[in-house]
């Protein structure tokens, strides 16, 4: 696989992000940086006494490895002793070490061991649920959350259902798993049964079973009308069903049981906007801001809400105090630029876009500004703007060149894009991102010699550039030239040593072993890569290897999963052309 895989996000529920912002959301605790404290293992549970010489030696080795920053070795040492002595605290310590390793598969191994040794513990179940979610396995994530629920813990199932819908996940399998849980446990005896009922109603509504959802909510209302979550769910489902009056009524009922709850004020504002009552919506948002004075993120989020409804003046009233403040949030300038652009004030919008400081919206604002100028038939101005921005923001030089290359390609000016890359690389010949970009463009155009030349320059200057090593190794493996497969293997194995947790590199390892005629060895790597990132390219490789090993049903299941999950799947389409029997 020539580069790191990135899965594009999808637009989700309009109100969910704000609801989470206002109501709070639990998830995986952030993994601290190893540089943030002298000994990151200091907070781990202590090692108990009673060890033999071998066990003590292994644990001391693991302890010293952790202090040196060799977290993989530390993790494996702790896990070996945890299994030997059946000691859950050692597995917990290994899990902490694994979280510093940046190796997702190692972390899963550690958490799995911890959960096996302490099946009633809450923390490993939550970690396993979070890890499943990170790799896109929503069904497995739900199973771990249900395990939490069956232990009497609050599994946040309703929030999970909302996040799944926002992410574009097929809700039907989740609905059926949750139905089995409700049938098995019985809602009357479960300490958090209402959470499961609300989640079920959300998933039923999303799968066209609105009547069943309403019935569940009505039953819950008869016995637990005091639950704010009930009215929150009712209001959200009503908004999704384009029933703003019903949403407004449910939000008002929610405020009765939870006075001042900002989530209901937000829902009331959204319902009023859908009804065209902008003044009433602004009253609710004003109440929100009075409750959260100084919360710039809330102001920006509310402005986005008004912009989505096309209410530019209301959005501007929220944003103007922010852009004039001592520490204006960058997104406020971006949204002001959006408003000016929609009003046809191109030059005014350009001024706002240029004021977006480096951060998460920096490149987005420059892209939008350049696109706006191009759409206004001002291509030369767009290129001049980007050239000036490269001078103003040297740390983003490579990104801004890549952005201009992309825009020139979109305008059908690929030759000019190539000239731009060549010109900038003549000035900065060791710019690794630009060399990599030019190599990938050469690969796309079938110029493998040029690709190999640029990747070779990167590797010569920086032998630890795992992306370049992997890209070159994968390309050589994919060529299936017997004389260069050994070279491909060596490159990819070097990349794996540098980034052992990368699914893209594990996929490349599997692919090169397959090309070398060792499908059994290839399978182990491809299964690990797919478990970490169920991407269609990895899936195509895995399915082909499974088919070669006569595991036809397993291969078809992998293909079927990708066909269900993605609207476009060119890698799978290509595979099915070569092996039509793989079609599920």
Q: How large a portion of the residues is in β-strands, by DSSP E? A: under 5%
| Portion of residues within helices | over 70%
Q: Termini, distance in Å?
A: 25 Å
Q: What's the total number of strands? A: 0
- Overall geometric form: globular
Low-confidence stretches: 3-37
Largest sheet: none
**Count of helix runs:** 32
Compute the average pLDDT: 87
Structural class: mainly alpha
What is the rounded Rg? 27 Å
Structure description:
With 584 residues, the protein is mainly α. It is built from 32 helices and no strands. Helix 14 (262-274) runs antiparallel to helix 15 (278-291). The longest helix has 16 residues, at 53-68. The model is unreliable at 3-37 (pLDDT under 50).
What is the topological layout?
Blueprint: H1 16-23, H2 53-68, H3 71-85, H4 88-101, H5 104-117, H6 122-134, H7 138-150, H8 157-166, H9 171-185, H10 193-206, H11 210-224, H12 228-240, H13 244-257, H14 262-274, H15 278-291, H16 296-308, H17 312-323, H18 330-342, H19 346-354, H20 362-375, H21 379-392, H22 397-410, H23 414-427, H24 432-444, H25 448-461, H26 466-479, H27 485-498, H28 503-515, H29 519-532, H30 536-548, H31 552-565, H32 570-578
Task: Offer a concise description of the structure.
With 584 residues, this protein is mainly alpha-helical. It has helices spanning 16-23, 53-68, 71-85, 88-101, 104-117, 122-134, 138-150, 157-166, 171-185, 193-206, 210-224, 228-240, 244-257, 262-274, 278-291, 296-308, 312-323, 330-342, 346-354, 362-375, 379-392, 397-410, 414-427, 432-444, 448-461, 466-479, 485-498, 503-515, 519-532, 536-548, 552-565, 570-578. Mean pLDDT is 87; it is low at 3-37.
């Amino acid at each position: 696989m020539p580069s790191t895989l990135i899965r594009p996000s999808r637009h989700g529920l309009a109100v969910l992000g704000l609801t989470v912002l206002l109501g709070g959301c639990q998830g995986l605790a952030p993994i601290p940086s190893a540089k943030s404290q002298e000994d990151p293992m200091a907070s781990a549970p202590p090692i108990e006494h009673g060890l033999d010489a071998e066990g003590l030696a292994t644990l001391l080795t693991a302890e010293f490895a952790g202090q040196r920053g060799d977290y993989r070795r530390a993790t494996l040492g702790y896990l070996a002793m945890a299994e030997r002595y059946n000691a859950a605290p050692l597995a917990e310590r290994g899990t902490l070490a694994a979280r510093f390793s940046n190796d997702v598969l190692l972390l899963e191994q550690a958490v799995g061991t911890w959960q096996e040794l302490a099946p009633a513990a809450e923390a490993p179940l939550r970690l396993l649920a979070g890890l499943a979610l990170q790799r896109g396995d929503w069904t497995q994530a739900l199973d771990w959350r249900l395990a939490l629920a069956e232990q009497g813990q609050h599994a946040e199932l309703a929030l999970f259902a909302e996040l799944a819908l926002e992410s574009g996940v097929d809700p039907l399998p989740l609905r059926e798993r949750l139905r089995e849980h409700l049938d098995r446990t019985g809602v009357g005896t479960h300490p958090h049964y209402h959470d499961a009922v609300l989640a079920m109603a959300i998933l039923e509504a999303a799968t066209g079973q609105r009547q069943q959802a309403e019935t569940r909510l009505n039953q819950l209302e008869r016995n637990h009308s005091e639950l704010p979550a009930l009215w929150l769910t009712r209001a959200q489902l009503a908004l999704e069903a384009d029933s703003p009056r019903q949403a407004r009524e449910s939000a008002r009922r929610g405020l009765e049981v939870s006075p001042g709850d900002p989530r209901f004020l937000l829902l009331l504002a959204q319902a009023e906007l859908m009804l065209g009552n902008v003044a009433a919506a602004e009253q609710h948002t004003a109440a929100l801001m009075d409750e959260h004075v100084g919360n710039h993120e809330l102001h920006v989020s509310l402005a986005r809400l008004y912009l989505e409804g096309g209410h530019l003046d209301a959005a501007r009233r929220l944003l103007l105090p922010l852009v004039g403040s001592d520490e204006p949030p960058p997104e406020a300038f971006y949204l002001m630029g959006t408003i000016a652009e929609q009003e046809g004030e191109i030059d005014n919008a350009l001024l706002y876009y240029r004021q977006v400081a480096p951060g998460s919206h920096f490149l987005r604002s420059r892209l939008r500004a350049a696109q706006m100028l191009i759409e206004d038939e001002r291509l030369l101005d767009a290129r001049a703007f980007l050239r000036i921005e490269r001078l103003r923001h040297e740390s983003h030089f490579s990104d801004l060149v890549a952005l201009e290359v992309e825009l020139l390609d979109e305008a059908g000016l690929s030759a000019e894009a190539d000239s731009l890359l060549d010109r900038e690389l003549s000035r900065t010949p060791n710019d690794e991102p630009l060399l990599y970009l030019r190599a990938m463009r050469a690969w796309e155009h079938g110029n493998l010699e040029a690709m190999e030349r640029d990747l070779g320059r990167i590797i010569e200057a920086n032998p630890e550039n795992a992306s370049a090593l992997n890209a070159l190794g994968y390309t050589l493996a994919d060529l299936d030239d017997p004389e260069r497969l050994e070279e491909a293997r060596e490159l990819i194995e070097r990349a794996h040593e540098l980034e052992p947790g990368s699914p893209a590199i594990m996929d490349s390892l599997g692919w090169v072993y397959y090309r070398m005629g060792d499908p059994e060895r290839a399978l182990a790597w491809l299964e690990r890569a797919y478990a970490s990132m169920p991407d269609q390219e990895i899936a195509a490789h895995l399915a082909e290897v499974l088919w070669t090993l006569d595991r036809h049903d397993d291969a078809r299941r992998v293909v079927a999963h990708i066909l269900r999950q993605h609207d476009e799947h060119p890698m799978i389409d290509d595979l099915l052309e070569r092996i039509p029997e793989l079609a599920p």
